[in-house]
Amino acid sequence: MILTVNKIFFKLKSIDWTKAKGIISFNLADINVTINTNDTVGLILQAWLKEYLNKNNILFREPSNTQEFPDFLLSHSNIENLLEIKSFNFSKSPTFDIANFDSYCDSIRENPYRLDADYIIFGYDMEKTGIITIKDIWLKKIWEIAGTSKKYPLKTQVKRNIIYNIRPNTAFKNYNASPFKSREQFIHAIYETLLVYKGSKFVYNWLNIFSINYKAYYNAEFKI
Length: 224
Description:
There is one protein chain. This protein has helices at about 5-15, 40-55, 100-110, 140-145, 185-200, 200-220; strands at about 20, 25-30, 30-35, 70-75, 80-90, 100, 120-125, 130-140, 155-160, 160-165. By secondary structure, the chain is an alpha+beta fold. It has one domain: ECO RV Endonuclease, Chain A. A five-stranded mixed β-sheet has the order 1-8-7-5-4. It has a three-stranded antiparallel β-sheet with strand order 6-10-9. Strands 2-3 form a two-stranded antiparallel ribbon. The model has no long low-confidence stretch (mean pLDDT about 95). GO terms for molecular function: type II site-specific deoxyribonuclease activity. InterPro entries: Restrct_endonuc_II_NlaIV (IPR019064). Its EC number is 3.1.21.4. Keywords: Hydrolase. It is an enzyme of class 3 (hydrolase).
């Protein structure tokens, strides 16, 4: 059956997570190891959600290349009902990678509909014994989880003056207002970040192509 992401999210929120404990283990040559580090939790939660969708007979598809966007397509459409899965250690501030900055900018320039993808985010706790508990779950759009920084209008991971990934704000965790109130404000932040990072010539060409594709999809002009 086809379910909207809102209905899937409602089903996930209805689970009594206080009674649902998880553990990650690996068995090889009769030796079993319990994983008690955070490195693989995100991948495991995504795999768990895939099995959850299967068990509940909820329609979903995955890209042929699992590294491609999005993690799941929740209908027969390739441009709607797109779902990404993110997670973070609930005892700390969210620091997960929302997306690779360059790849995302290229992606929405050609395919603006990707701006409307949904993000289900798991906040988890992992004990020293490896036991995992889900503390909270959020359903957000990218502009609701993206943030700002002193260096750039868009919060990013920067190393040696090279932007690598788009990073989240900390407000959504506590259900506070996010820096961006709309899709358009988020796009403005991308534009301004590209202007500082890559210069006016690059951003002019980027904006020109983006605006054409934006109008074709949304039937509306995008203005800076």
